[in-house]
């Protein structure tokens, strides 16, 4: 069996590793010229590590990842509440830069005798009942199945003619990936509620590496407290989209990860959802049960989109009344542990 995968992010690499581990031949295409050294997704949930344990990737990730101990909320620079993480399985969360997650997945893929074909772009496909003919920038490939794991702007999805239903949220968000020294509480999320309903979050990635993300156009300028930045690895802007395709499959062609769904970064669920899509699809391809893929994964994607939007609206509200209620809820959660644990589960659980 031969499966072609477009996209070598966490979703595509998970599909490749799992298929190769289960005995399939895999060709993974990536239009980038080489591995990414930038980080987009951050959080690793327990379910993702469970999926990646048989390949050995989970153990490699945990040797590097930061185990989050809690979340600290601020109103501008003033601390409002400290909530715990890791008090049960649902609240456990680890942080690791996406490029390191991808590196460990690619190492595992190489162990199974497969490589990523960098600099090779997916350009189209045709299919019949027996297989898929995949057109690339380097010629044609014959495959049994094609997986589009090529992100929000998926070329595979476009070639399938599927509508990416949903909306773009107003405003421009920003991101910065930095090395910094002396940051307080380096194993905790730091959330800052800014004026005009804006938000900013600082997330630990490694011992001295942090992700700063904000609903304002310049995340570093929006920081309401000092940060001793020694190196800026990446900074940029993006629009938050909340979208999902109606079907994740057409015949022998499938979508997984951001190619099938996208949402705000609140809660850190995006990469984990893609990893779960990929593992489910890989097993279905091996078992010959692909007809149930959409029916299984679409409801899960819709559920995560709802959770993510609920969390974003709670933090990113422009209503003074709602902002005040959110702050009072945070303070109550810090003072009454059962309430705080319930809040954390809603915010970060899968």
UniProtKB/TrEMBL annotation:
GO terms for molecular function: FAD binding; oxidoreductase activity, acting on paired donors, with incorporation or reduction of molecular oxygen, NAD(P)H as one donor, and incorporation of one atom of oxygen. The keyword Cell division does not apply. Its cofactor is FAD. Keywords: FAD, Flavoprotein. Residues 2-207, 233-300 form the FAD-binding domain. This is 2-polyprenyl-6-methoxyphenol hydroxylase. It comes from Marinovum algicola. The lineage of its organism: Bacteria, Pseudomonadati, Pseudomonadota, Alphaproteobacteria, Rhodobacterales.
């Amino acid at each position: 069996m031969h499966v072609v995968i477009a996209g070598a992010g966490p979703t595509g690499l998970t599909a490749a590793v799992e298929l190769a581990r289960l005995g399939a031949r895999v060709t993974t295409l990536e239009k980038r010229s080489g591995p990414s050294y930038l980080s987009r997704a951050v959080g690793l949930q327990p379910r993702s590590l469970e999926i990646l344990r048989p390949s050995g990737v989970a153990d490699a990730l945990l040797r590097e990842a930061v185990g989050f101990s809690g979340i600290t909320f601020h109103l501008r620079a003033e601390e409002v509440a400290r909530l715990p993480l890791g008090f049960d399985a649902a609240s456990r969360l680890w942080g690791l830069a996406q490029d390191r997650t991808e590196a460990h997945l690619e190492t595992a893929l190489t162990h199974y005798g497969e490589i990523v074909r960098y600099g090779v772009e997916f350009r189209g496909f045709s299919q019949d009942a027996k297989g898929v003919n995949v057109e690339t920038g380097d010629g044609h490939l014959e495959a049994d199945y094609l997986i589009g794991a090529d992100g929000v702007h998926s070329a595979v999805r476009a070639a399938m003619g599927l509508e990416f239903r949903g909306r773009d949220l107003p405003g421009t968000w920003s991101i910065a990936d930095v090395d910094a020294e002396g940051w307080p509480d380096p194993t905790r999320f730091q959330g800052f509620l800014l004026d005009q309903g804006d938000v900013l979050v600082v997330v630990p990635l490694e011992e001295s590496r942090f992700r700063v993300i904000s609903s304002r156009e310049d995340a570093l300028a929006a920081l309401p407290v000092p940060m001793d930045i020694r190196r800026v690895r990446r900074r940029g802007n993006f629009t938050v989209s909340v979208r999902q395709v109606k079907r994740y499959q057409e015949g022998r062609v499938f979508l997984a990860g951001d190619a099938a769904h996208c949402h705000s970064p609140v809660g850190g669920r995006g990469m984990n959802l893609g990893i779960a899509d990929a593992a489910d699809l890989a097993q279905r391809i091996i078992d010959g049960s692909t007809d149930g893929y959409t029916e299984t994964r679409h409801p899960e994607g819709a559920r995560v989109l709802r959770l993510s939007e609920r969390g974003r609206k709670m933090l990113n509200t422009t209503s003074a009344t709602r902002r005040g209620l959110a702050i009072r809820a945070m303070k109550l959660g810090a003072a009454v542990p059962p309430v705080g644990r319930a809040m954390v589960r809603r915010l970060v659980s899968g």
